[in-house]
Fold this sequence. Notes:
Elements: E1 3-13, E2 29-33, H1 39-50, H2 63-71, E3 76-82, E4 85-94, E5 99-107, H3 116-129, H4 131-134, E6 143-149, H5 156-162, E7 166-176
Parallel strand pairs: 5-6
Antiparallel strand pairs: 1-6, 1-7, 2-3, 3-4, 4-5
Helix pairs in contact: 1-2
Amino acid sequence: xxxxxxxxxxxxxxxxxxxxxxxxxxxxxxxxxxxxxxxxxxxxxxxxxxxxxxxxxxxxxxxxxxxxxxxxxxxxxxxxxxxxxxxxxxxxxxxxxxxxxxxxxxxxxxxxxxxxxxxxxxxxxxxxxxxxxxxxxxxxxxxxxxxxxxxxxxxxxxxxxxxxxxxxxxxxxxxxxxxxxxxxxxxxxx
Length: 190
């Protein structure tokens, strides 16, 4: 098995005024919170968005593990729909002391390049900033952060920075190279 160097960048916003929203795309694009925790739907989004960019860390999760994660207080999944079809998602996970991570964000490949990503990221970051308004008992958000890596889409870093996220850490680590799993084997050309 071959190893590859993977660079991971961590970015943050430290005030709601850091957010630089993107314009909404033209057409029938809506963003809706998946209010009923659904391991099936969340795994579908994860595999469909990350299948071509080697998201593999959750593929081995059991149904119960997905359920435990989604049932945690404050975990939210916001889904972008283009004419009623799921186009991508953003998953928010609260931490301690008002820190919220945009744990996952991305678009299904067929919906990339259509100006949906900037809008979805803007919307997701805004929902991270007002997360405590929907979850009594959560601390008011003081910081929103995320990470991206050299395996992610070529426009990911630019999108994050254009939305007002600032780089605060960079790490390079060796990882075993894995084939892109796709949402199912053979879904993406080599």
